Amino acid sequence: xxxxxxxxxxxxxxxxxxxxxxxxxxxxxxxxxxxxxxxxxxxxxxxxxxxxxxxxxxxxxxxxxxxxxxxxxxxxxxxxxxxxxxxxxxxxxxxxxxxxxxxxxxxxxxxxxxxxxxxxxxxxxxxxxxxxxxxxxxxxxxxxxxxxxxxxxxxxxxxxxxxxxxxxxxxxxxxxxxxxxxxxxxxxxxxxxxxxxxxxxxxxxxxxxxxxxxxxxxxxxxxxxxxxxxxxxxxxxxxxxxxxxxxxxxxxxxxxxxxxxxxxxxxxxxxxxxxxxxxxxxxxxxxxxxxxxxxxxxxxxxxxxxxxxxxxxxxxxxxxxxxxxxxxxxxxxxxxxxxxxxxxxxxxxxxxxxxxxxxxxxxxxxxxxxxxxxxxxxxxxxxxxxxxxxxxxxxxxxxxxxxxxxxxxxxxxxxxxxxxxxxxxxxxxxxxxxxxxxxxxxxxxxxxxxxxxxxxxx
Amino acid sequence: xxxxxxxxxxxxxxxxxxxxxxxxxxxxxxxxxxxxxxxxxxxxxxxxxxxxxxxxxxxxxxxxxxxxxxxxxxxxxxxxxxxxxxxxxxxxxxxxxxxxxxxxxxxxxxxxxxxxxxxxxxxxxxxxxxxxxxxxxxxxxxxxxxxxxxxxxxxxxxxxxxxxxxxxxxxxxxxxxxxxxxxxxxxxxxxxxxxxxxxxxxxxxxxxxxxxxxxxxxxxxxxxxxxxxxxxxxxxxxxxxxxxxxxxxxxxxxxxxxxxxxxxxxxxxxxxxxxxxxxxxxxxxxxxxxxxxxxxxxxxxxxxxxxxxxxxxxxxxxxxxxxxxxxxxxxxxxxxxxxxxxxxxxxxxxxxxxxxxxxxxxxxxxxxxxxxxxxxxxxxxxxxxxxxxxxxxxxxxxxxxxxxxxxxxxxxxxxxxxxxxxxxxxxxxxxxxxxxxxxxxxxxxxxxxxxxxxxxxx
Lengths: 458, 458
Description:
The structure is a homodimer.
Chain A: E1 5-6, E2 16-18, H1 39-42, H2 48-55, E3 60-62, H3 65-71, E4 79-81, H4 83-89, E5 94-99, H5 110-122, E6 127-132, H6 136-148, E7 151-157, H7 158-163, H8 165-173, E8 177-181, H9 187-195, H10 203-215, E9 222-224, H11 231-250, E10 257-261, H12 266-280, E11 286-292, H13 297-300, E12 303-307, E13 316-320, H14 343-350, E14 357-359, H15 361-374, H16 381-400, E15 405-410, H17 418-425, H18 436-443
Parallel strand pairs in A: 5-15, 6-7, 6-9, 7-8, 10-11, 10-15, 11-14
Antiparallel strand pairs in A: 1-4, 2-3, 4-5, 12-13
Helix pairs in contact in A: 3-5, 5-6, 5-11, 6-8, 9-10, 11-12, 15-16
């Protein structure tokens, strides 16, 4: 029988994360005064142990035993050879995917939610606040907080809160509190509600509310948590790629092409960074982050300094950005609707080490349906994007008659986001084409900000 | 680090199913004439290779390579030590669960859907019909049919079809057709619609429609498929217990107590039958099927001959039954709302080899929430029932100061059934107490049927 699924045993689980900051240069985040942010300035928002990870340049960072114990509920995750998809495409390419959908909330997000909850716990924090759009991140943090006995409060973008009542049920089942954002619980929320009572909400507003709720808690025992973009978040996700590398070795393979979908950048970073290390050290690999054409941060937006949130509470981050005021079109891949991109991923694109691709909503769903009917697992709307590019690469390999080895991250299943498939089948979904004019207009918000340097890591 | 998750490698996957029919006696199914049904009589409904399995008394039956290849997408499934639940209960018991929720549709159902689709394919069948209540079985068969290129038609109980539109989306994503039952596509459906246009539908009606749709297809290339109750279905599920046995051995354990929730009986049979074999051969194990108190087939209904469906299309089966006309109260565990019980499971209860338990809806949800907040996985409403009994056994072990080893089947996750949790938290759920009078009234329908013999296997 041909090998379909490659396991690692419990004893083979990686015990350190890989920190790409040891191997690339990054522009520093800047404060309101245009000067680099110091760790102290972030202390009201994050616990100091996570801030230390954020700025660390150690190449290998130990994963605490108590974190491993929780990750072990579903990790090591399986690496699966997409034999049926290969047969369907009649390609000489060998396609492998890392199945991150086997986590309790169904995505890769708990890989960082668990250590974040752990480090907050160790630091004496009693409560974590966060925002969530489609709900994957809020669910993951709710799950993680329940594992460490920490209170969790999630501000969920109002329109999603209404469209997806069961995401709230998930969070509540894990003991978290979830409210629609804008809420009347924060000044940021009250201000918006006063002027726009019928607003559908946005990730930017929700981030503002979550940060405000954390920093204004006078007990000093509340902190904020972010599910992507930041260095320590990407660090935690590298367990995906480190496991995949071991699993590929077990079957005598090494990837020619690596792909992950990219919204904030964390699942793409997770699968690819351990291989980016190899590429920096001379390996010949093509590495592709895949984003939605409706929110083309890496493929069409410049590399600039911009804020991580609409309300400009966060420092200026060096990243590809469509502008902090940009409201992405309502594609169903809520996890990819972000105006910016992780600074580390942005830096790799700026240096030409990785090469971004963009996929339209309809192409993404078409690919997802092919995957479901061949490989059997229904992908999350976000994951559909990477699958579309995987299929394109496999067909290219066929055209060229090359036995390419393709590895991608199957970031999550779509069982809680079937509404998108429903609309796809009833032909209610459309693509969203952004004009250059719209993009230029959105980008206006950062034109007077400092510019990041074009650093070269190699 | 304490071992939490026990894997089997791909090469350790069981290559044969265990057939309990080699080791127990069973009353035969009876036709309308009161005489045993012959394989030929079932030929319009099922393909002959599955009928042969249904009546086989071979102890070990080979799993075809093409079936293994599909099962391998998620199998071997992990065996997990419930360390956090143990700690929460402060019990000396060691609790292990087999995580069947990692399959693409999220439950144990594909373990039989895949071989059923395969055997139909091999027999030349082009289309399979079935019914579904809550949707787990319909989804699993849709998935399995997509893997073998077979058309799939699902009649879904109307009330569930309306309440759970995303179950239909799942089936459609896998390429199946799903209609609300009663439908206008069958005579059985038309008859009901003519007299009861507003009926919410029932599993009984849906089964009648699915069987009719299969046997009236003049091409001769359509057959019907059932997701529980029958011998070959239970046979296919034994891969769960066979894997669990190997996994327990790996960590030097053997269970004192084995539990599974029971509706039709297949997931309970899957985890327990390989151990029932041991018990018949002298091992001291307590084996408990756990059913909902609202549909107390094993705990309160007699062992009789009754039909498997309301419309009496099926042969008479020897089973514990509340009567084929019994409409179970609307508990959220749709998968456990069945008037009868698998003949093999019924026979084991009749002989005292296994001992049934019943759990109320509210106790089940309370247990599910405890499990979600300790072990991290949100259980299906059906699975909540077995968890309630597991917790009771673990607390009993604590009282008695005994280091019991408990094994149970985690039959599915609840991510597509969060509506039940939603209602639980908002206190909209209630228990359903059936009076003796109600049960006696329901049982009236089979009082003039033949009676099964009290066979003794040991």
